[in-house]
Design a protein that fits this description.
With 262 residues, the protein is α/β, with parallel strands linked by helices. It contains 8 helices and 7 strands, in the order βαβαβαβαβαβαααβ. Strands 3-2-1-4-5-6-7 form a 7-stranded parallel β-sheet, sandwiched between helices.
Length: 262
């Protein structure tokens, strides 16, 4: 049994990389990792947003440009992160996108782009970090999937397929690495209070003519607690998986959804 004591410096000496760390859930996770003593690199496409986020996160945060859907961009981004702050011990595969339309109106480009970002992005980024985790003898891979990885939702077939894929990848890799001190888990938020949901509200308004409040009510009606999940609640689950004491948890898909999925 390892030392399961948790304090604010529990992740001191660890380097965490959070894809999509410039806002929303990724930003909340980056903030929590820093609060526990990790060095944190955030990655995303918009350099201006990244720099602003890194500045507000503080001196222990660093930003690297990366499009997780582009293998060369992922290679370059991880090489830069390693050069600046050392090998990655904790990978948070958080970058993601959604677009909604009926299945019959889902075009090839939307389908492919959604899979490239949400699923292949996890594959590319995880391949970059595993060799160093195996060498150092410690690692945490946490994939931000979704309740849409556990159950189906109408009008988001590509998103559901990509997130179900992330959960399959999580389970397979956890089993493959089970004899190593590396855990691989998925965290599955329900509707969470970020730009992604703000965009979903505008889409519902545009497509149905509902008011903003009606559109928000339609979204929160999915959650038995009648509210949006807060990004910090997702970050808390991620932290539990990173901190000492959760070593036996691997291959899991943890729903953070106010009971929407049970
Ligand atoms: P968000 O507010 O829209 O932020 C998305 C983040 O991902 C941004 O930092 C964005 O930065 C980055 N990103 C998007 N595409 C990228 C790409 N190709 N390469 C690199 N970075 C990229 O989203 P969020 O709500 O925080 O969602 C974070 C994760 O949680 C996603 O995987 C999402 O599917 C999942 N999730 C969200 C909810 C929800 O209700 N909000 C529910 C369940 C699961 P750039 O645009 O600058 O690249």
């Amino acid at each position: 049994m390892g030392d399961s004591s948790v304090n604010l410096a529990s992740l001191s000496g660890k380097h965490a990389l959070v894809t999509g760390g410039s806002r929303g859930i990724g930003y909340a996770v980056a903030h929590a990792l820093l609060a526990h003593g990790a060095r944190v690199t955030i990655a995303g496409r918009d350099q201006f947003m990244l720099d602003g986020a890194a500045n507000s996160l503080g001196a222990e945060a660093c930003a690297v440009p990366m499009d997780v859907a582009q293998p060369q961009s992922v290679k370059d981004g991880f090489a830069l992160a390693k050069q600046r702050r050392g090998a990655i011990d904790i990978l948070i595969n958080n970058a993601g996108q959604v677009s909604s339309q009926p299945f019959g109106k889902t075009d090839e480009e939307t389908w492919q782009r959604t899979l490239d970002v949400n699923l292949s992005g996890v594959f590319h980024c995880t391949q970059r970090v595993l060799p160093d985790m195996l060498t150092s003898g410690w690692g945490r891979v946490i994939n931000i999937a979704s309740s849409a990885g556990l159950v189906g939702y109408a009008y988001v077939a590509a998103y559901c397929a990509s997130k179900h894929g992330v959960i399959g990848l999580t389970r397979a890799l956890a089993k493959e690495l089970a004899t190593q001190p590396i855990t691989v888990n998925a965290v599955c938020p329900g509707y969470t209070d970020t730009d992604m949901v703000r965009q979903a509200v505008s889409t519902i308004q545009r497509k149905t003519g509902r008011s903003e409040q009606e559109a928000r009510d339609a979204i929160t009606a999915n959650n038995p607690q009648g509210r949006l999940v807060q990004p910090e609640e997702v970050a808390n689950a991620v932290m539990w998986l990173c901190l000492p004491g959760s070593e036996s948890v691997t291959g899991q898909s943890i729903s953070i959804s106010g009971g929407e999925v049970m």
